[in-house]
């Protein structure tokens, strides 16, 4: 038995949800470029869960359900108010989603119908939880969800406490489409491993949030913004990156296990970052990002991944960097729950082997003789 570090190249499951072939990402056979250009996030979530794009009536019915389920229990809001003010937002989200299960009488109902409903509920409630965490941290009261609003509109509304502008809604909606699913990424794999024991959907999503938090996965978008803040001005960008590369440090937002010739999602976020900068009349963040990309790609051949330009996009939307990875979760919970539903269908426990590299032939020595 020989282990492959990081399971690189290992095909661990079959899936009909999303695929990456020759650098092209598709959801249920639809090219991500096509969806990013034309589809709303709600259409994409429906596509991931149910395998087809919704017709007008199916879409309306999903929007209605998302709207109906968006509120979170008062007791959960009370809990969120007890979290330390400086708590990591992803840690707070992980705790809140885990606690959400306590208020759902159907949490352990393993029927397909109940789990589909919980997928839609989780999709509806994650934005509400994150907006509540953000507002409570600022000493403000959470804002109740707005009936009839899309996920993107509602999230910005609950965060800001006022109606967001159309440009922000459109940009966030497109970012959500781009982050919705990504084959067997680390957090999705974590969710599938958890529910393959026939544990519940909340446990699967809680595991996934824990995996997404790390800076080698979703946490990279926050780390990118910290880097841009440290760089500060355009004239310092090249030297800053050069020093990091000379020290063999990783540059956040670059590289990918599967894409070696570039992440197909990055170009959409780059375009969005440029357009938002132009609209604001200040392209500093975009220009700095481009220079960093030129330096990293020029020196190491590494291309930006989905996290790199999303940092400048979210900042230009006025969103604080602690919310970048939680926003990733707002989108990816659609993919996680689609994979969880797929895992339950014809489930088998996921239990691989380890190549043993430890000591052998040890003999027990009584504690007083050690
Ligand atoms: N900056 C500098 N060097 C890098 C980077 C980077 N961002 N990424 C990879 N490398 C180098 C590694 O140091 C290594 O070099 P070596 O062979 O000389 O030691 C080589 O490229 C291979 O890198 P690995 O880390 O082995 O690649 P792996 O496939 O295991 O990891 C990962 C992929 C985690 C994405 C990695 O590229 C990385 O850490 N990137 C930065 C974090 C990041 O942006 N994560 C988000 C990924 S996208 C997502 O999850 C949403």
Automatic annotation (TrEMBL):
The keyword Thylakoid does not apply. Keywords: Transferase, Tricarboxylic acid cycle. The active site is at residues 256, 307. GO terms for molecular function: citrate synthase activity. It catalyses: oxaloacetate + acetyl-CoA + H2O = citrate + CoA + H(+). One of its GO terms (cellular component) is cytosol. The keyword Transferase applies. GO terms for biological process: carbohydrate metabolic process; tricarboxylic acid cycle. CDD domains: BSuCS-II_like. Pathway: Carbohydrate metabolism; tricarboxylic acid cycle; isocitrate from oxaloacetate: step 1/2. InterPro entries: 2-MeCitrate/Citrate_synth_II (IPR011278), Citrate_synth-like_lrg_a-sub (IPR016142), Citrate_synth-like_sm_a-sub (IPR016143), Citrate_synthase (IPR002020), Citrate_synthase_AS (IPR019810), Citrate_synthase_bac-typ (IPR024176), Citrate_synthase_sf (IPR036969). PANTHER family: CITRATE SYNTHASE, CITRATE SYNTHASE, PEROXISOMAL. NCBIfam families: cit_synth_II, PRK14034.1. Belongs to the citrate synthase family. This is Citrate synthase. It comes from Paenibacillus uliginis N3/975. The lineage of its organism: Bacteria, Bacillati, Bacillota, Bacilli, Bacillales.
């Amino acid at each position: 038995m020989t282990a492959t570090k990081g399971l690189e190249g290992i095909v661990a499951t079959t899936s009909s949800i999303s695929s990456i072939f020759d650098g092209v990402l598709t959801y249920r056979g639809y090219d991500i470029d096509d969806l990013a250009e034309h589809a709303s996030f709600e259409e994409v979530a429906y596509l991931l869960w149910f395998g087809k794009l919704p017709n007008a009536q199916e879409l309306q019915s999903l929007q209605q359900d998302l709207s109906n389920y968006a509120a979170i229990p008062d007791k959960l809001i009370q809990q969120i108010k007890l979290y330390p003010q400086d708590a990591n937002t992803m840690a707070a989200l992980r705790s809140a989603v885990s606690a959400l299960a306590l208020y759902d009488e159907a949490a352990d109902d393993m029927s397909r119908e109940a789990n589909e409903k919980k997928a839609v509920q989780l999709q509806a409630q994650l934005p509400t939880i994150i907006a509540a965490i953000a507002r409570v941290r600022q000493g403000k009261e959470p804002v109740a969800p707005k009936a009839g609003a899309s996920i993107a509109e509602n999230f910005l509304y609950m965060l800001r406490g006022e109606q967001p502008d159309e440009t922000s809604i459109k940009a966030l909606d497109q970012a959500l489409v781009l982050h919705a699913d990504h084959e067997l990424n680390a957090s999705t794999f974590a969710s599938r491993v958890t529910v393959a024991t026939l544990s519940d959907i909340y446990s699967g999503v809680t595991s996934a949030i824990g995996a997404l938090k790390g800076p080698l996965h979703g946490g990279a978008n926050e780390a990118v913004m910290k880097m841009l803040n440290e760089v500060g001005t355009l004239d310092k960008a090249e030297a800053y990156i050069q020093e990091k590369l000379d020290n063999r440090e990783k540059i956040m937002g670059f590289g990918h296990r599967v894409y070696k010739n570039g992440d197909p999602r990055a170009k959409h976020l780059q375009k969005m970052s440029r357009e938002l900068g132009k609209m604001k009349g200040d392209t500093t963040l975009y220009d700095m990002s481009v220079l960093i990309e030129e330096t990293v790609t020029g020196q190491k051949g590494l291309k930006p991944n989905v996290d790199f330009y999303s940092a400048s996009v979210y900042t230009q939307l006025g969103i604080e960097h602690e919310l970048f990875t939680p926003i990733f979760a707002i989108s990816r919970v659609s993919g996680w729950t689609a994979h969880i539903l797929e895992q339950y269908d014809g489930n088998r426990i996921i239990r691989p082997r380890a190549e043993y590299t430890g000591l052998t032939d040890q003999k027990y020595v009584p504690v007083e003789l050690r």
